[in-house]
Amino acid sequence: MTELSDRPSSTVTPVRPPRAVAEEYTAIQDAFARCRRYRKEHRLYGVVDASLGRIMLEVGAVGAVVMPASLGEHVRDLIGARGPLGPIIAHPRSGRWTFLTGPTDNSYLDIALFSDLFRVCASVAQPGSRIVLPSPSDEHGGYRCWVAAPQRDYRPGLAEVVAATRACAAPAAKVSAAE
After folding, report:
1. CA quadruple 27, 28, 30, 34: dihedral positive or negative?
2. Radius of gyration for the chain, computed over Cα atoms and rounded to the nearest angstrom
3. What is the 3-state secondary structure (H, E, C) of 105-148?
4. Angstrom distance (rounded) from CA 24 to CA 6
5. How far is the CA of 111 from the CAs of 58, 85, 106, in angstroms?
6. Segment 1-50, tens digit of pLDDT
7. Cα dihedral: 163, 107, 100, 58 (round 10)
8. CB 98 within 8 A of CB 65
9. How far apart are CA 96 and CA 31, in angstroms?
10. How big is the CA angle at 33 (ends 58 and 46), to the nearest 5 degrees?
11. 166-173: which pairs have CB atoms within 8 A and are 24 or more residues apart?
12. Which residue from 99, 112, 102 is spatially nearest to 69, judged by alpha carbons?
């Protein structure tokens, strides 16, 4: 038989100040409003992870190519010289950029493409993976922001971004091979 102790429990549930709860609620509501705007104006059908206040977008109808920011600047310039820019997300703390593209395809299975991108620390997001779109709290905290905001529902083709990435990576590969 077990005895119940008269001593109070040693576990204490922390109490959050009302102001913190209100700020958290506001941040989540702002994320929902931003997510609705992404859906309505840009056909980016994300969902809000209410526990984190992040806007998540599943790769499929929208593809993505992720790369270091330094390479991303060159890719942005090359694509921008040819025509309109598609949405580009910066991740300042990790020094990476994500280019949103048209629908993904099976190119992520191409071993030659994989190795070309791997050499420059870039990758094609696999179907079913998730991308985090900039939310108001991300932008204020410096986690994610738009380098090139979405323009209506325009996104460059996945093949176009991959070709530009390979073209911009080629000089870097030649320099490292020469060393």
Report:
1. positive
2. 21
3. CHHHHCHHHHHHHHHCCCEECCCCCEEEECCHHHHHHCCCEEEE
4. 37
5. 23, 27, 11
6. 445 555 555 565 555 555 555 566 677 888 899 999 999 999 999 999 88
7. -170
8. yes
9. 22
10. 5
11. 166/113, 166/116, 166/117, 167/78, 168/71, 168/74, 168/75, 168/78, 169/71, 169/116, 169/117, 169/119, 169/120, 169/122, 172/71, 172/120, 173/119, 173/120
12. 99
For residue 85, the SS3 value is coil
Q: Which amino acid is at 50?
A: A
- Give kind and range of the element (H or E) at residue 42: helix 18-42
What is the total residue count of the chain? 179
Q: Are strands 145-148 and 47-49 parallel, antiparallel or unpaired?
A: unpaired
**Tokens standing for residue 167:** 């073209």
pLDDT in tens, 90-143: 999 999 999 999 998 888 788 999 999 999 999 999 999 999 999 887 776 778
- In one letter, which amino acid is 122? A
